[in-house]
Amino acid sequence: MQTKGLNRDVIKYAAMFTMLLNHISTIFMEPGHFWSELFLDIGYFTAVTMCYFLMEGYQYTHSKGRYALRLALFALISEIPYCLAFTEKGVLEFCGFNMLFTLLICFGILFTLDKVQNKPLKILIVVGLTILSLFSDWALLAPVFTLLFVWARGSKEKTKAAFAFSALLFGVMSFAGGIGRFSIGLNLVYAIGCMAGIVLAGIVIVYFYNGKRAEKGRKFSKWFFYFFYPVHLLILGIIRIAIP
């Protein structure tokens, strides 16, 4: 009997697509235009969704060591494609560490919360890892999202609150980043638009996620999600270089 709702793999496929839209906008489209901003805003669905499923995956994985190793391996594989895609001038320059490094940091936070018993040491490590994220994609925000989902674990009401706070936090940071670039009214619209992807992720996960994986093709999906990230960045990077 088929379970109603959206399974984890379907939501992850949607997250890969929205990430692709975001990256196309960032690399190829002129900022400020409707379609460019729409693609960017829809793409913000992805990071918070990845943090949510990282928290969930940490709970369910049979080998936390192998999980961390996969993240580390694909973070290394993805770094050159990431920099290739997002270099603004020339062929290749360092653009910070990619999102898989950030997820690895978030995994370290989950591991610390799970395994370290000494409270002051636990806080010190979590703060240190959060600061370390400053050098990678979705700096500070991804660790905060992860901590919120840990706090909310097992409670639908708390999960709603976690997504709401995540969206609000990103909206405030986006508004702050828009000061001096936009009028107050336009900046407010910009910030609300930035929140839309996170709000959509919250609606999908809270109201439509059935808590299950796909019944078929699990191994394919598992590796597709890892390979999609570096492969799509590599293709976008090659296209960027090829276009005069």
**Whole-number count of domains:** 1
Q: What percentage of amino acids are in beta strands?
A: under 5%
E-strand count = 0
Sheet with most strands: none
Can you give a write-up of this model?
By secondary structure, the protein is mainly alpha-helical. The protein has one domain. The protein is built from 10 helices and no strands. Helix 2 packs across helix 9. The longest helix is centred in the C-terminal third of the chain and has 25 residues, at 184-208. The termini are far apart. The model has no long low-confidence stretch (mean pLDDT 93).
Write the layout of secondary structure elements.
Blueprint lengths: L7 H21 L5 H10 L1 H16 L3 H23 L12 H17 L3 H14 L8 H12 L3 H23 L5 H25 L9 H25 L2
A few lines on this structure:
This protein is mostly helical and 244 residues long. The protein is built from ten helices and no strands.
